[in-house]
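Reopening this one. Same input as before:
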Amino acid sequence: MPTFDITDASFEKEVLQSPRPVLVDFHMEAGCGPCREIAPKVAEIASDLEDELKVVKLDILANRETAKRFAVTGFPTLMIFWGGGLRSLIRGNRPMEQLQAWVGTHLNEYRHVKRKREEAPSH
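Same output, byte for byte:
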């Protein structure tokens, strides 16, 4: 699944309640050169990892509540959420290799935690 837009109203369901990790691209729809530059990279990550990672976009000008809640001050800001909480963030446009490594690190952490939970004896 490619990226799709979310809003303040859908953030809780689409991100915090998601059963899998979510990459959120907090961006400005208009007037943000770095946001336009990073968009194809985020779309490529979404395509490459569609079976493991949900990727969504949130326009911070139209969705100020969520941007304020997570103290988004730079554009673009990418955040990874899983297990109902924020796990990591980066700000600004980055080289593709750096984005892939960042996402990969957090997906590996998620896989490790998930595997440990599955292996834990049930009481």
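So the earlier flakiness isn't reproducible anymore. For the record, The radius of gyration is 15 Å.
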